[in-house]
Write a structure and sequence with these properties.
Number of helices: 11
Helix content: 10-25%
Number of strands: 27
Structural class: alpha+beta
CATH superfamily of the domain at 422-601: Galactose-binding domain-like
Length: about 675
């Protein structure tokens, strides 16, 4: 751990300097928890469902600290997908917070573990009602829990599935005073059926729900569908019994559906068969999405999102962050190192949702970056203690860890996001990115019949040996199915923190929607290209709008392009993780008028001691500049899933769904 004196960060950009920039208080000191505590288990009856008549039993554990002289705030948390209240990510964090004096209510979400019911996607119809009743029944009567005029004072923590419910509860319950969701979604429609096209008129560029269709993320979605349907076989939940009692079928058009209610299985079957979401499908996902009622979210929010997460990426967090900040809601955002896909927490970080649980007794959490930042945030908004933490911090893999204690030295910081410069490059000729005058040209790439063979970027999996960090397969592009536009080698390091964007002039031969994937590569002096964090940005342009300029956001990251390296924008027709266009197509990019905006600017060694000039961050995608000069604009635990063997089951389910879909009239 060491003091850090840093920087600015951006919408679309950030550049580092070493002097002349205000310091933010991002140095976290060890904070040993001194309270002992007792735990109390209970199965709590609740009622939920569309008409409030569905009955469920929720498995809970209450962590009650000793030694509090006055009533204290409470914390509510629930499990990641496929897990329960007994998972290490729950027990470690509940123990940490109880040792710091919080009353913690941990529970297993409906459909998992010893809780009854089906998996209901953290919906307002089911799961939010469950959480509200738990607060009323278990926290409301307690004299050791702090109360105000609304009832018990409650904060929320949790990651992934346990993060997705937090905004939904806080939007509808005044007893929630602060939330700290980790590695989770803004809208499930974007996370599972993403479209990174910026719809004209979007005030932030991240209002993903404005797109009517996306590019189905079938690898990840099939994993979740397989996992949820395996719950009954392992004794988790009581979905088959619930379905039998209500007459809900266990098969939908030949597709097995023992772990979810009918509507979820219908949605999966439809979209996996033809790649399109119906209005019914979108309504189902909206019931579980923060963005649906985000205008009602007014409580302080700490967003923690992993840079390597290909399930819930940084753009999910940015969408929530910008919406809250525009309305003046207190919000902080941390981009940590890992994320879904088997990426473990790094030493000194302690992301509990990615194996960073602080050792066998969890005491290591008392001196770890993410747990201490979360504690400071909760203490500030629930207890009124000062928290000088910056508004935006991000992990930097090019800075070494000091070797012990909280890993604050690897985190850069800024007062807020966005804040800082970016560089806009023109597409030039058939393959160049330039800040000077562009050469007119076109570049063409093909979509193959059936969308195969396809490019490979990752093997999607929760954790274990079949996830990408443990699969020695580098990302590969298919010949003829992509085009590349590359900068000249940088004359100095370029530190890029933010969300790249592009403004493209495209045409294609097909009469259907245009589907492609945007990527950013780091190309070294030898010509070796590395796909940054294996991130891809699927884009789907409605057929009626092809021919108009396309603005898109690529996926956010924090990355250093070393001196002598280049940045490359790649546009590809296919990806093995997703539902590719099935009809043959020829896609053409016109260079003249197209542009790529990359966070950051090259800082030559001779001026690195100077502070960067902050520029106002654009609310919409950058227009193509007319001038020739560069332009600026301001204990081991599974990471959300229990079984490394799930990919095979998921692929089998997907194959079944596709076969069923092919038998259906479209």
């Amino acid at each position: 751990m060491r003091p850090t004196l840093l920087l600015l960060a951006p919408v679309v950009g950030l550049v580092l300097a070493t002097t002349g920039v205000p310091a933010y208080a991002d140095v976290v000191a060890p904070s040993p928890g001194t309270h002992t505590f007792k735990t109390f288990d209970a199965l709590v009856p609740v009622v939920d469902g569309p008409d409030g008549t569905h009955k469920a039993m929720i498995d809970t554990t209450l962590y009650v600290p000793s030694g509090n002289a006055t009533p204290q705030p409470a914390i509510l948390q629930t499990n990641g997908f496929g897990l329960s209240k007994s998972a290490a990510e729950i027990v470690s964090q509940a123990t940490f917070l109880a040792r710091h004096g919080y009353v913690v209510l941990a529970y297993t979400a409906q459909g998992f573990g010893k809780s009854s019911g089906c998996v209901t996607l953290q919906s307002r119809t089911y799961d939010v009602k469950d959480a509200q009743q738990l607060i009323t029944k278990l926290l409301g009567p307690r004299a050791d829990v702090l109360h105000d005029s609304h009832g018990p004072v409650v904060g929320m923590v949790g990651g992934s599935y346990g993060g997705g419910i937090q905004a939904n509860v806080a939007e509808n319950d005044p007893r929630i005073h602060a939330i700290a969701p980790g590695r989770t979604w803004n809208t499930l429609q974007y996370s599972l059926d993403p479209n990174n096209r910026v719809v004209p008129g979007d005030p932030t560029g991240f209002s993903h729900e404005r797109n009517t269709q996306g590019v189905f993320k079938f690898e990840w979605t099939s994993l979740f569908f397989a996992s949820g349907n395996m719950n009954p076989a392992s004794g988790a939940g009581s979905c088959p019994q619930d379905k039998a009692a209500s007459g809900d079928p266990t098969k939908v058009a030949g597709l097995a559906c023992p772990g979810f209610f009918l509507e979820v299985c219908q949605t999966y079957g439809r979209i996996s068969a033809n790649g399109d979401a119906t209005e019914q499908d979108k309504a189902l996902l909206a019931d579980s999405s923060a963005t649906t009622q985000l205008d009602k979210l007014t409580v302080p929010t700490l967003l923690v999102q992993g840079q390597s997460d290909t399930l819930f990426n940084e753009n999910d967090a940015v969408s929530t962050y910008l919406s809250l900040r525009q309305r003046g809601v207190p919000v902080q955002m941390i981009w940590n190192s890992g994320g879904h896909g088997g990426y473990d927490s790094l030493p000194g970080e302690c992301e509990v949702y990615g194996s960073g649980t602080g050792g066998a007794d969890f005491r290591g959490l008392d001196d770890c970056y993410l747990t201490l930042r979360t504690l400071h945030f909760l203490d500030h908004y629930l207890r009124g203690t000062p928290d000088p933490s910056p508004g935006f911090t991000y992990f930097r893999d090019w800075i070494p860890y000091a070797g012990s204690g909280a890993d604050d030295e690897q985190y850069g910081q800024a007062a807020q996001f966005p804040a800082g410069p970016a560089t806009t490059y023109r597409l030039s000729g058939t393959s160049a990115l330039t800040t000077g005058a562009a050469t007119p040209g076109t570049a063409t790439f093909l979509n193959p019949p059936g969308g195969t063979p396809s490019a490979y970027t990752e093997t999607s999996n929760f954790t274990g040996p079949q996830s990408s960090p443990r699969v020695p397969l580098p990302p590969t592009e298919q010949p003829g199915q992509h085009v590349d536009f590359t900068t000249l080698p940088f004359g100095g390091d370029l530190v890029s923190v933010g969300v790249p964007s592009a403004h493209l002039l495209l045409s294609h031969a097909s009469a259907k929607d245009l589907i492609f994937f945007g990527k950013v590569y780091d190309v070294d002096a030898a010509g070796t290209a590395t796909l940054i964090h294996r991130l891809i940005a699927p884009v789907r342009v409605p057929a009626a709008e092809v021919g108009q300029p396309v603005d898109l956001k690529l996926l956010g990251f924090a990355h250093r392009f070393a001196k002598g390296h280049s940045a490359r924008l790649t546009l590809a027709a296919t990806d093995a993780t997703s539902y590719n266009a099935k009809v043959p197509d020829v896609i053409t990019v016109r260079s003249a008028g197209s542009a790529f905006t990359l966070p950051g600017q090259v800082v030559p060694a001779r001026v690195r001691s100077q502070a960067p000039v902050a520029a106002a961050a654009p609310a919409a995608p950058a227009a193509v500049p007319a001038a020739a000069a560069p332009e600026t604009s301001a204990a081991r635990l599974p990471a959300t899933g229990p079984d490394a063997g799930l990919p095979a089951a998921a692929l089998a389910l997907l194959a079944g769904a596709v076969l069923v879909g092919r038998r259906r009239p479209v």
